[in-house]
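Handover notes (outgoing to incoming on-call)

Open items:
1. MFS transporter: sequence verified, structure written out, both below. Nothing else pending on this one.
2. Nothing else urgent.
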Amino acid sequence: MSKVLPPPGLPRRLATQSALLGIGGGTFLTGSVVFFTLYVGLSPIQVGLGFSLAGLVGLVGSLPLGHLADRIGGRRAWVLGALGGAATFAAYPFTDGFWMFLVLITIEATADTFANAGRMVYMAAAVRREERVRTMAFARAYLNVGFTVGSGLGAAALALDSRAGLLVLVLANAAGLALNALFVARMPAQPSLRTTRERQPSPWGVLRDHPYTALASLFGVLWLNATLFGEVVPLWAITMTDAPKPLLGVLFAINTVMAVALQVRATRGADSLTGSTRLLRWAALASVAACPVVALSGATHGWATIALLAFAIVLLTATELWMSGAQWYLQTEIPPAEQRGAYLGASKSVGGVTKMLGPASLTFLAIHTGGWGWWLIAGIFVVAWAAARPIVAWVERTPRNGLTEPVPSI
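MFS transporter structure tokens:
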């Protein structure tokens, strides 16, 4: 049962919270675009602009909101963010026009960014170091279980083909977030952190930690695999191979099953800089290998094409699982304890640049070159593989102001 259930106590409560959050989020995400177009009456372009604005809020707001989570405490920030999200989703059915939609989606993105910052700050402070990465792995696995259940509920609501069904999508997520806030508020208080400096350091000073920003950039490059999985490979499969369109559902199912079944196991070794560096390099190599596999699928037929695309998804999912474990350790152990939120925010902001540029550039390289661009994409991940060890070593040997405890040595 230890492979299925997290350890009792706080780790199990955090996993349960993740599952509840995933159910609400999965229910809404299944039909979010349908809700905004058919229920609210927005055009697809207006919805796309709103989602882009939400992404920009996350990119710009991660650092200051992470710093605020440091100041007021992770649990409090998490609760406030969840309540803000619940209130926003409850207001979505009353949206009257495009500008009100932009205001609400900005508030929702801000609340979500704040809640995520609070969650990381709380988990890093409240969970013992030796259990931290494993606990985060269980939380991610249970989140995926919740999303799977929520996606089924969302599909059922869409099947009603009515305004009432669309309303269920939004109100289920609002209720889930409200329940989530109550659940988090009842969790044990995190230990207080005493800064070693007389006054609270400026959050913008994090950006002057050049080794850490280099590490954040490395995270951003490696997370391009998510763009490959979610956007580029499906588009390639539809336009450049003879794979049947229903195969896309199977490919996404492979990712979900692997994430649920293997996330905890994939974090083994992510309890030191040596182990985390090794996982980063494995993650990079998995994406390197996936690129020529996808390219080859454009020259095959029938079951061979299906097998190659499935193998590529396995490799890209392996990147996701190894990356997650390494990133959880590095993002919680490297920053000074009293600045974890600010460091996490800086990492999201720096890495968000590649997330913003990735879809267009990777789609061009993969598809508009006819396929040879996959080798250039593989080259990007080769560079990440080569850079991982020196970047982590640079991070390790660089002192940080306010550091309350040393980073475990390589």
